[in-house]
Structures are given as structure tokens and as C-alpha cells.
Design brief:
The chain is of the alpha+beta class. Helix content is about 40%, strand content about 20%. Helix 23 crosses helix 24 and helix 30 packs across helix 31.
Length: about 1200
């Protein structure tokens, strides 16, 4: 058999040969586009319906439950979404690949402020009245229309990121089934007595006209500048007209003042202001707030006169005049008196607090305890839902509260009440949706009584696993410990309505838990939607004779809906009851750190109230992704690259791996750098891809060289039984990696898993392949076919394992490489996707701790040897006489000696010696370093004396210490933690160079003086380097059949050739430093070295290396160039091997015409394929010519190589 011609035009001949079997693997491209291949892989997944196919295959396996927190589709996905989505995808893929059935439903948060705020902006809606005038139905229709505005962009981005999630079977919080389950959740909690209506001071958004929960308010703090004023409140009946001085940063609350509060135990000063003559009362220790020390120093006279002091208890009950007369009738209730409470602080303000119970939680409590207000009446709140003053304050009616600050201060100044005016910069909560300042105001709301289940929440938190753990045990635990009742109602329109129908007097309350229940209670059978416009008019007859019950005005906080998603997404308990109950709590959820007080909290609260158990078992918390400068990413500032631009430039896999191989998976912040994504390509993907490509080239090359015997077939047993230590090591290391990945992923520790896999890829590329390159390529019979096959089987096994382990992390690249490698697998073992494969189990028989230990021993030796060469500027091509390894441990030294051939090869050494510290006093001196932290604490002021004693320990004493790990000095016992032992080379520095490990417990010493033979070898390697670079520059592949011819040029010809090639100024383009002009003697010397060492050059380049005179006349020249070697110029010619017919021999057999046809036919064939065919047929080619058989023998009838 012979290969078919490689040229498109075959001789129109009467000759015919059979087609040969193609090689196992398609050759991977040299230039590889990761984003481009990802698009092809996505198309392949679409073609085979990969995600749904994986679900079909896993039906019947153990169910593994995942909850996807619903995002809003009113905005585009950003890096925070991509990060959380990547973490979810990784863990879900891994769960699938470890034998589980993993349903992954996408969800959408459709209700709430984000949607309403968009519509308010669009329609110019400024108040609640505007919505009512428009009509709730029309308003909600507008909201519904934009809910899924960017859903297609979400689907596109999520899909492009390689995340597998079911968008076809998604859930939406606005679907009636979802809303009905939310009703059931609420009714269940209501029936348990955990819901009540109350009046509380709550964070309130005046822009959105709704209260927020405490955890919403805590999400968005900003530094703001506010007025800081001291206001005078005259004491009624004081003979000197003394004024109580209260400090506030919210002048707009002063019209609502009902009391002042002091600390009963503090001492208050009564002073007379030197400038105004006014008598003022304020906390004595805070007089500096009004009279700063700097101001006093500049004044020639005292700023005030101290008249006396009074305790807070004495001030309690004193009556004062309010700033404004609007609510003077409240004096009858006991208002406008001084109250006392220990909440008053002495670190800011004046020690006197102005009380406006409608706008402060402590104000409300203290005034309520004093009887000034109660649940139903007495609270002064002269602002409307939009934060504007009502007619109760006629001087400011219609003004927005913050806009009224200046006018209020002006009026107080005119009235002589403004004692001091300043400003303060402090951290203040903003509305997370509208980005406007929140206020705190007392409003009626429906609450979940979280405080009643607080202890259960803490217990349930302990039943979950958080990664990282500190978020659970610190941040979340503290939040639960201090949890307050949760306000779940919102005075809005687009949301799930509270299912509460009440009588006009508020005494009869009916909570509805389903559509059927509402139909039965109301008598209405046309209820198909639960939004406000459909049910606000639905009434329920009273069972207590109270007339008609009507639904309350509020809707649910959208956080209540997201917290109810485990039940509502499956329409529990109306459907899927058994399935849900068998799979609850969820095995896994993941979101960002900001959800600690958001979704994580609401999930825990509702599941505890419903079932007294957590909603999830395992949770990964990611940190925040910031701009490169460390500030928040901002669309306005454009301080971050568009995610799709990054994906299109570097690929989704690179972005995924960059994000998860960073501190952000440990709940820390990540300063996003595009260069970091690019670095993943350089440092991880290219080495991984090139390892795969190198394997394919090597496997194909073996088959082309030796035929059927070299056709690759995977054989794990062949790899594990290999007598080669490096084969056994890489397989053992791979199975150690499997054990590690399984253990760490079982604990959801992505932050340890990913670096370990990346480290293994580095071990594979920079150690295994590098140390076994010649075996894998079988250069000039450097190894037997069997040895090469063992190496290939080892590398194949590892590459397949890496694909399976990396599949959850980098799904695209793992898929591409797996599908190429899977071509060698038997049909029954080959999967249509790596994502259909299970994560392999670690094989006990593949593990080899001894060989892993031994390789770990030689790696630092080799690295230190490289460091020494670099320091001495001795190129690796020049062999060196000797390397000595010094260490305390005989086992480590034995391991190094056992693998010394790899040290010799990698460092180009003639000999490796090993010596224990105890036996090498002529080369090494051990020195003791006391552990300052431990011994300093131990000996205190005497440490200096003991430090000197430790440093005086001799080499012999320290050798003994390294063996026994303990020593005694003057009765004091020291162990290995107390004393560190470091090694130092003491040999001849002109001959030897040393390098030590970071702990200085390993010392490597190299003899750096090569002899002439070694220098000649260095020259030989320089020549081979020029050839290899020329081959690469010419675009030739390793498997290309070529011959290399050389000629050393005399100086005159060399100069002419260099000038012609434009290289005269820098002939050393191959990397060596330019040398001085060479002489004829230099040229002869180099020619003599090359002639002597040509066999070595041929071995190094894996191709024939011959003098120019040996080139056949029929050889096709591919490239011709001149290159510098140690200052001498040589001519290199790369020629294609060509079959040259012996025309006389063919003519004698078949005639002259046939000889010409045979030569044409040989010219049409790729020599590599021809050589493979010759290898398989014993060096003979059989033709058919006009029906007659013609047998030709290589070496007699034709010649294939200049070597023959």
C-alpha cells in the first residue's frame, strides 16, 4: 500500500495505488483562536442539544437541588452577575459529573422598585397621586412591558459564557403560579402568629414613596455633607432666659420637635456667651463643640463665662419653648418637656438631643415610653409620601424637606434661635434604586416577627456550610443575632398584593392563601390574575357582621418574593409537592457578599418560619468586582471594559478562569484587570493547548514513521507499568490531583481547587513534557517504539483527565481538546461531549507516593541549577562538569540520585553528586537562626543573651539537631520551631557557584569551569538552535520530512551574503551576542567542530544534517539562509526529501517511458506519507500499470534520502 498523492493535480496516469488509513488525530492548528473555537463549540452544543441531552442522560440519578437567585432583567448583566453565574455553573456541572441529576432553572425578578422606578422616569411620574390618576392597571401594564426588556441580552451573555441553565423552563415572579405560592407562604406564616401590623420608624425612600427594610437600607451608604446646627430652646420660667442647646444634622425635623432628651448622669454647664450675652445650657464636656480650643486661643478675652452646672436628672421635666408653633396644642399631652435617657452620648453634639418621634427610632421609643405618643395617635409627621411638607407647616408647605433646610435655618436665625451653624461629612444611607438619600420616618407596615424566631435562625445557620466560613460565623451570624422584625409591605403598585382583607374598623382580618380560597370567600369565579388591578375590587363578606372586607393597599416587598422562590418556582404546595419535599433544602446556592443581608437572609427567615430548617445546605459567597482603580464600576465613568468585548477578545473560558482564580471567590474584592484575562491565555491555556498539540504531533509522527505498529491506542496499563519514572510520576500525580479535586469540591472550596489544577498543568508542560520530549518524539531512535508508546499513553491519560477535571471550569477548551483526543478511544468509551463524562475516580494502583516525592525532590534542584547558570551567564548549551546537592535528609538525596539523569539532562551536567550536611563540612557551614517571635516572648529581657548562645552553635551540633529535632542549651530545650537552620557554601568561589532554597535547607553547588569538549558541545547545540529557529520561521512542522545541509562560509563570502540578506550589522539574529569579525581560522575551527559533532546535531534536530555537497540534485529547496554561530557565518539549506528514481534500473525492467511516469508519480507524494507506507511494506512499493504489477524497492530502484 502507498499513500494517495498530496497534490491536487495527479498525473493523468495509468498507475493506481490503494488509499492508506489516515492517522488517528487531526493535526491541531499552530495559531489557535480561543474565542473563535468557543463559537464553534457552542454551535456544536446547539447541534447536539448538549445541555438537555446531559439532563436526559442523568434522569434517574440522585437529585441534586440548586436555586438560582432571580436577577432583574431591566438592566444588562455585569461582571458581578458573570462571576456569580460562573460559580453556579461550575458547581452544578461538577455535581452532574459526579453522578447527580441537576436541574438548573433560570429565574427572573419581575416586581418591585427597579421596575417601577424605570416607569416613573419614563412617564415623568412624581407622586402616588399621578399613578392613581393614570390608573393602576395602565401603570402595571407599563411595568409588565419592560420587565423582560433585556432578557435576550441576558440569555445571549449567559449562554456565551458557557453557562448551562434552562431558560425555556424559567420562572418569573410575576407569573400567577408564583404569586399564588407567595400567598401560601404568607398565610402559613400569618396563621402561625408571626405577622402583625405596626407603626415603626423605618428607612423610607421619598423618591419611590415606599419604606425599605433595614437590610435594603444597609446596602448603599455614601459620604455626604449635611448642615450641623445648634439650636436654642428657651426654658420656660428661667429668670435669665437660659436656652437648652440641641444639636442636629436634620433641620427639616425641627418643626416636628416634641421633646428634648438629656442623659440623667451627665453634668451640664450653664454658661454666658461673651458675644451675645445669651445664657446657654449644654453638656460640660462638649463645650468645645461651641467654643473650640483654637478659637479660644485667638481671642484675647474668654469666649464664655461659666455660671454653674446642673445634672441631667435635674433638667428632667423642665418645660421649654419649641422652635415653631405648629403643634403647640400637643403641650397638653406633656410635650415640650425635657426627658432623660441613657442613650444620649457624650462623643458628639451638645449632649442634648432634639426629639422628633416621627423621624427617629430612639426618638419614637423615648417619647412613647414618656406617654407623649401612642400607637394610634400623637405622632407628628407633617410630610407627605413624597417627602414634601404638608399644610400643617404653612411656612414650608409643598417644599421638599431637604430643600427647606436653608429656609428653616434662616427663620431660626431671625428668631435668635440659631446658636451655631456648621456642616458635617458623614456616611448616610441612600435608596439602592433611586440613588437618593433615605429618611427615617414612622409609618404603618406589616411585619414578620423575626425576633420571635431569632434563636431558631441562629440554630439553622449552624446547619449550613458557607464558603468562606467567616461570612457565616461573623457577618451573617451577627446580622441574625441583631435581627429586627422585617417590614414586608410596600406602598406600591407593581408587585404581589398582600392577601389581607380587613373590615373598615380594622378589627376583622382575613388572610387568603390561594386563588381557590379567594374565589370561595368572595364568590367571584373570574379570578385569573393576582395583580392589583384584578383583585383590588374583589371584596369578601364579613363573617362577624362588619359589612364588607376590602383588601389592604400594600404589595409585598420584592425581597419577600425572592425569599419565597424555593416554593413559588415549583408552585408548591399546589403542584410538585412530593418532589419539592424530597429535595428541600437545596444542596447549593451562590451569590455575592451583598446578599448576606438580602437574599440569603430572606431565604433563611422564610424557611425557618415555614419549616424550621434552612433553605440551603451549602453556599458560596463571592466578593465584589471593582474597576481596576479599586472604585465601583460605573457605566457613566466607563471605568471598566465591556464584558462582551473581553469575551470576544479572549474568550469566555479565560474570563471564567480569571474570575474564579482570584480572591473574589473568598468573598474579597477583585480589581478587574483586562491584562489578567490575557494572562490566563498566556500562562494557562497556551501551555495546555500546546501540550495537547505536542501530543497529537508526536502520536501522528510515530505512526507516520513506523506504520501500523506506531498507531496510537490508549492503554492506561501500559502507562502505569512503564519502567520510566517520569511516566509513573505524571500518572500518579494526576490521580493525586483527582483525589484532591474531589475532596475540595466536596467542600465547595473553589479557591483551593483551581490553583491546584493550574499548578498541575504547569507540572505537565514544564516538567513532564520538557523532560521527556525526546522520548515522545522518538528522535532518531532515541527510544524504542514501545518506550515512545508508553510515554504517549501516559501523556494521553493525563490530558484526558485534565479535560474531565477542567470541564466544569473551562467548558469550551476542555470540550475541544477532549473531542480531539476521544478519536483514539474505542467507540463504546467515546462520549459525544466531555460534559457527558463523569469525573474519574482516583485509582489506588496509579498512586505512587515514592515517585511523587522523588520528583518533588529534583524540581528545586533543577530550578536552583538554572539560577546558577543564569547568575554566571553560562548558556544551557554548554555542559558543565559537576553539580552537588547538599541536604540533611538522606531520603531526599537518594531520591535525587535515583532520578539524576533528569537533572543531568535538564541542566546539561556531566555528573550529579549528593552529600549530607553532616558529611560535607568542607563545602557547607550550618548556621542557627533563632525564632525571634517565639524566643523573644519566651525569654523576655534575657532574649539577647539566649540569641547569642543559639547563634554560637557549631556545624556538628546543628547536624545533630537536624537529626533529633531537639537540643538543650544550659538546661533550656529548643525544638525545630525555636531554631531555624540555614546552610551556607564555603567552597572556592572562582570555580563553584551555589544557590540555596528559600528556607536555606537545600544547597546546590555547581562546578562552572567547562573543558574544551564541553565547549565544542555548546557550539554544536548553538548550530542545532539555528536550524530549529529557521525551521520554525519557515512555518515547517515537526512531522515535515526535510533534510538540512550546511556550509561554513569564509569571511569574504560571509560578508557578501550578510550584506545581501540585510544582516551585516546584526548577524547574530538567533540570539547570541554579536562577535568580532571572524577569520579563516575561526571558520575552519567551526567546520571541524561541526564535522566532528554532526551526528549530535542530527539527533538534536531530529533530521538529517549533512554537508552541502551531499544534497541530491532532485531535492526541493524549501528555505536557504545564513546564520551566525559564535561569530562565524554558516549557510543552512532546508530541503524536502524527494524520491529519486534510478531511471536505468526502471528502464531495464519496464522501459524508458515507464521510468518517467514513476518519477512523476513519486513527485506527487508527500515524503512523510511515502516513508510511512514504506515502513509498513518492508521498503517496497507495488504499482499497477495497465493491469500489470510493478514492484519497486527503495535503495535499488529509487532513493528517498540523501542518507541512502
Amino acid at each position: 500500500a502507498c499513500p494517495s498523492p498530496s497534490r491536487s493535480s495527479r498525473p493523468g496516469s495509468r498507475l493506481r495505488l490503494d488509499m492508506a488509513q489516515p492517522v488517528v488525530f487531526a493535526d491541531p492548528p499552530g495559531k489557535f483562536s480561543f474565542p473563535g473555537q468557543e463559537n464553534k463549540t457552542q454551535a456544536y452544543w446547539d447541534e447536539i442539544d448538549a445541555f438537555k441531552e446531559s439532563l436526559r442522560r442523568s434522569e434517574g440519578r440522585k437529585l441534586w437541588t440548586f436555586y438560582d437567585g432571580p436577577p432583574f432583567a431591566t438592566g444588562l448583566p455585569h461582571y458581578g452577575h458573570i462571576l456569580a453565574g460562573t460559580i453556579k455553573d461550575i458547581v452544578c456541572r461538577y455535581a452532574h459529573q459526579t453522578g447527580h441529576h441537576v436541574e438548573r432553572r433560570a429565574g427572573w425578578d419581575c416586581h418591585g422598585l427597579p421596575v417601577e422606578f424605570e416607569i416613573d422616569q419614563k412617564l415623568g411620574i412624581k407622586s402616588r397621586e399621578d399613578v392613581l390618576a393614570m390608573g393602576i392597571g395602565a401603570y402595571n401594564d407599563e411595568c409588565r412591558a419592560i420587565v423582560m426588556r433585556y432578557s435576550s441580552e441576558w440569555v445571549s451573555t449567559v449562554t456565551r459564557m458557557g453557562r448551562w441553565i434552562d431558560f425555556d423552563n424559567d420562572y418569573k415572579t410575576m407569573n400567577v403560579e408564583f404569586m399564588e405560592s407567595v400567598w401560601w407562604v404568607f398565610k402559613t406564616i400569618f396563621d402561625k402568629g408571626l405577622v402583625y401590623k405596626g407603626f415603626k420608624v423605618m428607612p423610607y425612600s421619598t423618591t419611590c414613596s415606599t419604606p425599605l427594610s433595614n437590610f435594603e437600607a444597609s446596602q448603599n451608604y455614601k459620604d455626604v455633607s449635611d448642615p450641623a446646627v445648634i439650636i436654642g430652646f428657651p426654658l420656660v420660667g428661667d429668670p435669665e432666659g437660659a436656652m437648652l442647646c440641641a444639636w442636629t444634622t436634620t433641620p427639616w425635623t425641627l418643626p416636628s420637635n416634641l421633646a428634648l432628651c438629656v442623659h440623667p448622669d451627665f453634668e451640664y454647664a450653664r454658661v454666658k456667651d461673651a458675644t451675645t450675652g445669651k445664657v446657654l445650657i449644654m453638656l460640660k464636656s462638649r463645650l468645645t463643640a461651641l467654643y473650640p480650643a483654637g478659637k479660644q486661643k485667638k481671642s484675647k478675652t474668654p469666649l464664655y463665662t461659666l455660671l454653674g452646672s446642673v445634672s441631667g436628672e435635674e433638667l428632667k421635666g423642665r418645660e421649654y419653648e419649641p422652635c415653631f408653633p405648629y403643634f403647640k396644642d400637643h403641650r397638653e399631652r406633656g410635650c415640650f418637656h425635657v426627658l432623660a435617657d441613657k442613650f444620649v452620648r457624650d462623643d458628639s453634639g451638645t449632649g442634648i438631643v432634639h426629639m422628633a418621634p416621627a423621624f427617629g427610632e430612639e426618638d419614637n421609643r423615648i417619647c412613647r415610653e414618656a406617654g407623649l405618643i401612642n400607637k394610634a395617635e400623637g405622632i407628628v409627621c407633617p410630610i407627605d409620601a413624597n417627602g414634601r411638607f404638608t399644610d400643617e407647616c404653612p411656612d414650608y408647605a409643598g417644599m421638599y424637606i431637604k430643600d427647606a433646610d436653608d429656609r428653616i435655618m434662616e427663620n431660626l436665625k431671625a428668631a435668635g434661635r440659631l446658636i451655631d451653624k456648621d456642616s458635617i461629612t458623614h456616611s448616610y444611607p441612600f435608596c439602592w434604586r433611586s440613588e437618593t438619600p433615605l429618611i427615617y420616618r414612622t409609618i404603618p407596615s406589616w411585619f414578620v416577627n423575626v425576633e420571635a424566631v431569632k434563636e431558631k435562625l441562629l440554630v439553622n445557620n449552624e446547619q449550613t456550610r458557607w464558603v468562606p466560613e467567616f461570612v457565616q460565623t461573623k457577618r451573617f451570624h451577627n446580622w441574625l443575632r441583631d435581627a429586627r422584625d422585617w417590614a414586608i409591605s410596600r406602598n406600591r403598585f407593581w408587585g404581589t398584593p398582600l392577601p389581607l382583607w380587613v373590615s373598615d374598623d380594622g378589627e376583622e382580618v382575613v388572610c387568603v392563601g390561594s386563588i381557590e380560597e379567594l374565589k370561595a370567600l368572595s364568590g367571584r369565579q373570574d379570578i385569573t390574575d393576582l395583580h392589583r388591578q384584578y383583585i383590588d375590587e374583589v371584596t369578601i363578606p364579613s363573617k362577624e357582621g362588619k359589612g364588607t372586607l376590602r383588601r389592604v393597599d400594600e404589595v409585598f416587598d420584592c425581597w419577600f418574593e425572592s425569599g419565597a422562590m424555593p416554593y413559588a418556582q415549583v408552585h408548591y404546595p399546589f403542584e410538585n409537592k412530593e418532589k419539592f419535599e424530597s429535595s428541600f433544602p437545596a444542596d447549593f446556592i451562590a451569590e455575592g457578599l451583598d446578599q448576606t443581608r438580602g437574599w440569603f437572609y430572606t431565604l433563611m427567615v422564610l424557611s425557618t418560619c415555614l419549616f424550621d430548617k434552612p433553605a440551603f445546605k451549602n453556599l458560596i459567597v463571592n466578593g465584589l468586582v471593582l474597576a481596576e482603580t479599586g472604585v465601583k464600576m460605573s457605566k457613566r465613568l466607563k471605568n471598566y471594559p465591556d464584558p462582551m468585548d473581553v469575551i470576544n477578545e479572549y474568550g469566555a473560558d479565560a474570563l471564567r478562569l480569571y474570575l474564579i482564580n482570584s480572591p473574589v471567590v473568598c468573598a474579597e474584592t477583585l480589581k478587574f484587570k483586562e491584562a489578567g484575562v490575557k494572562g490566563i491565555i498566556r500562562d494557562v491555556f497556551l501551555p495546555w493547548y500546546n501540550s495537547f498539540r505536542f501530543f497529537v504531533q508526536s502520536a501522528n509522527r510515530l505512526e507516520r514513521d513506523v506504520g501500523a505498529e506506531g498507531r496510537f491506542k490508549p492503554d492506561l496499563n501500559l502507562a502505569m507499568s512503564s519502567p520510566n519514572a517520569m511516566d509513573r510520576w505524571i500518572v500518579a500525580a494526576a490521580h493525586s490531583l483527582i483525589s484532591f479535586v474531589r475532596a475540595e469540591m466536596e467542600a465547595y472550596r473553589l479557591y483551593t481547587t483551581v490553583p491546584r489544577i493550574i499548578e498541575f498543568i504547569e507540572q505537565l508542560t514544564n516538567w513532564y513534557i520538557k523532560l521527556n520530549r525526546s522520548r515522545l518524539q522518538r528522535k532518531e531512535n532515541d527510544s524504542s517504539v514501545e518506550d515512545c508508546m508508553r510515554a504517549l499513553c501516559s501523556l494521553y491519560e493525563v490530558l484526558i483527565l485534565v479535560c474531565k477535571l477542567m470541564a466544569p471550569f473551562t467548558p469550551f477548551l476542555a470540550e475541544y481538546i477532549y473531542l480531539q483526543l476521544a478519536e483514539a478511544l474505542p467507540e463504546g468509551e467515546r462520549e459525544g461531549s466531555v460534559h457527558f463524562c463523569m469525573v474519574p475516580e482516583a485509582l489506588v494502583e496509579a498512586r505512587d507516593e515514592a515517585i511523587e516525592r522523588a520528583v518533588a525532590a529534583i524540581q528545586p534542584v533543577i530550578e536552583l541549577g538554572r539560577e546558577i547558570r543564569q547568575r554566571r551567564k553560562i548558556p544551557l548549551k554548554v555542559p558543565l562538569p559537576e553539580l552537588t546537592v547538599l541536604h540533611k535528609d538522606a531520603q531526599l538525596l537518594a531520591d535525587v540520585k535515583g532520578l539524576e539523569r533528569y537533572v543531568l539532562t535538564e541542566l546539561n551536567m556531566r555528573e550529579v553528586r549528593v552529600r549530607r550536611f553532616a558529611d560535607a563540612a568542607d563545602m557547607v557551614q550550618l548556621r542557627a537562626m533563632p525564632n525571634h517571635n517565639l524566643l523573644g516572648k519566651r525569654f523576655g529581657k534575657d532574649y539577647g543573651k539566649w540569641q547569642a548562645k543559639v547563634r554560637e552553635l557549631s556545624h556538628a551540633q546543628l547536624c545533630d539537631f537536624l537529626e533529633t529535632k531537639t537540643l538543650t542549651i544550659d538546661g533550656e530545650v529548643f525544638d525545630a520551631e525555636d531554631v531555624l537552620v540555614q546552610s551556607e557554601f564555603i567552597g572556592a568561589g572562582e570555580v563553584y557557584e551555589s544557590a540555596a532554597s528559600s528556607m536555606k535547607d537545600l544547597l546546590v553547588v555547581v562546578n562552572c569551569l567547562p573543558d574544551q569538549e564541553m565547549l565544542d558541545e555548546g557550539t554544536t547545540r548553538a548550530v542545532s538552535n539555528r536550524v530549529q529557529k529557521l525551521r520554525k520561521e519557515s512555518g515547517l512542522q515537526v512531522q515535515d520530512s526535510i533534510e538540512v545541509f550546511y556550509r561554513v562560509l569564509v569571511p569574504a563570502e560571509a560578508t557578501q551574503r550578510l550584506l545581501a540578506a540585510g544582516q551585516h550589522k546584526s548577524a547574530a539574529d538567533a540570539g547570541d551576542e554579536a562577535a568580532e569579525a571572524s577569520t579563516e581560522e575561526d571558520a575552519k575551527a567551526l567546520e571541524a567542530v561541526i564535522d566532528k559533532m554532526s551526528a549530535m546535531v542530527a539527533k538534536l534536530i531530529g533530521k538529517p544534517f549533512l554537508p552541502a555537497r551531499r544534497r541530491l540534485l532532485g531535492a526541493v529547496v524549501l528555505v536557504e539562509a545564513v546564520r551566525d554561530v559564535d561569530g562565524v557565518v554558516i549557510e543552512l539549506v532546508l530541503a524536502r526529501e524527494t524520491a529519486v528514481v534510478d531511471a536505468e534500473a526502471i528502464a531495464a525492467k519496464c522501459g524508458a517511458e515507464v521510468a518517467g511516469l514513476v518519477q512523476q508519480f513519486f513527485d506527487a507524494y508527500d515524503p512523510t506519507e511515502l516513508k510511512r507506507a514504506l515502513g509498513a511494506s518492508g521498503g517496497k512499493v507495488v504499482f499497477r500499470l495497465d493491469g500489470k504489477q510493478l514492484e519497486l524497492e527503495c535503495g535499488k530502484d529509487f532513493t528517498l534520502s540523501s542518507l541512502l
